[in-house]
């Protein structure tokens, strides 16, 4: 049996944590999900571009779960490696060393994994 990757493990931890949160605060979780689904729906900005914004914000705020989640979302919606790295670079312009440390480590590891399809089910969509 193939060992679960660090990226897949992080996504699973997030999913499990949301499940616990939802059991304790179902209405809050339901409203949060509705809000984020609306935010990430196709609109004047494409879903891909919204995930690229999420990548930049995750890098900027040093949020590893958001980096992983939105890197996967970006790749799943057709973002190229260069597009993902450009989004991270914009965050680096604002966030300096802290943002760049995520852009050259966690982001690149997630990008490599999701571009190669390792540990992911291509038919499984990600929802907030």
Describe what you observe in this structure.
It comes from Melghirimyces thermohalophilus. Residues 26-108 form the Carboxymuconolactone decarboxylase-like domain. Keywords: Oxidoreductase, Peroxidase. GO terms for molecular function: peroxiredoxin activity. It is a single chain. This protein has 128 residues and is mainly alpha-helical. It has one domain (6-116): AhpD-like (Up-down Bundle). The chain is built from 6 helices and no strands. The chain has helices at residues 6-24, 26-39, 47-61, 64-76, 81-103, 106-116. Helix 3 runs parallel beside helix 5, helix 4 (64-76) packs parallel to helix 6 (106-116) and helix 5 packs antiparallel against helix 6. It starts with 5 loop residues before the first helix and ends in a 12-residue tail after the last helix.
